[in-house]
Design goal:
Length: about 300
């Protein structure tokens, strides 16, 4: 029996190692770490009390070793009832519900799944946090799976301070590549009032067709083209859009032919010319600025 107990303990520890590596790819076995995976319990140092509906089952929790603790529950409430319960409990305990901006979007390989988990509702204890996201993630057999994500890092808090104006976050729609092309997202950068996203797309379409493909998507999302310029193998367009009750916010879309795939690279994109029936690689960049009274960064 003692040997079986040691074997069971070893299996549990190996299972824990696998789970931690899946949850945190940078976790290394044998090194000191604060990452915790707790079955049917909460991290012992959790200092923020999070309510749980009556009769709910605590599946477990995960602390990422930095600032975020995820608590997983099964509750016998519908998804809208879950949100109503936490709205009442958290607001009564001094939390403030905040409106989260829509996802940034940008260059994407495929459309978003219609059955993806809801964004959930977010609450702040103060302008510096902590903040918690209540997220119903699906229902089965009369139970709703709920994830509570608690973050205690003031630098990551999305909690608006007193008097902070609306419309401070850039919004870029999801932009899909032309059919039959290959998209490679490259970078996402920005701050509170601007964003810059880049990607490369390989397609057998010409420059004008690729530019029109993305123009149409921006137009469908309510962006208005104000100016378009063609310079050699480059296309540059300026846009305005309406978001967060702020009209006239600015955006730009830049497309450049950088290589004929299968041919040696040339000295510069301006020297490239479109060739029929040749697969070509394009550089894409989209920028979304802040409100009309703000300057958009140029780098």
């Amino acid at each position: 029996m003692p040997s079986e107990s040691r074997s069971d303990d070893g299996n549990v520890e190996r299972l824990r190692e696998v789970a931690l590596r899946v949850l945190d790819p940078w976790w290394v076995s044998g090194q000191a770490t604060q990452v915790l995976l707790v079955v049917a319990g909460l991290p012992p140092d959790l200092r923020v009390a999070l309510p749980q509906p009556k009769g709910s089952r605590l599946v477990g929790s995960y602390f990422d070793g930095r600032a975020t603790t995820s608590v997983l529950l099964d509750v016998s409430l519908q998804e809208d009832q879950v949100l109503a319960y936490y709205d009442l409990e958290l607001v009564s305990a001094g939390w403030t519900r905040i409106e989260r901006h829509p996802p940034l979007g940008g260059f994407d390989k495929a459309s978003r799944r219609a059955d993806s988990p809801k964004e959930g509702w977010s609450y702040c204890r103060s302008s510096n946090g902590p903040f918690v996201v209540v997220q119903p993630v699906g229902s089965s057999n009369g139970l709703t799976a709920v994830r509570l994500s608690l973050n205690t890092d003031p630098l990551q808090a999305p909690c608006a301070g007193p008097g902070e104006p609306a419309g401070s976050a850039p919004i870029i729609p999801v932009l899909l590549p032309p059919p039959g092309s290959e998209l490679m997202p490259r970078s996402r950068a920005g701050a509170a009032n601007y964003a810059v996203l880049t990607a490369e797309v390989v397609s057998d379409l010409g420059r004008a067709a690729v530019a029109s493909h993305y123009d149409l998507q921006l137009d469908c999302e309510g962006w208005t083209c104000k100016m378009r310029q063609v310079r050699g193998s480059q296309v540059w367009s300026a846009w305005t859009y309406h978001a967060d009750d702020q009209p006239g916010r600015r955006g730009t879309l830049f497309l450049s032919l950088v290589q004929h795939v299968g041919f040696p690279p040339r000295s510069g994109p301006l020297e490239l010319k479109e060739e029929p029936k040749v697969v070509q690689k394009y550089w894409l960049e989209i920028r979304a600025g802040g409100r009309a009274d703000e300057a958009t960064p140029t780098a």
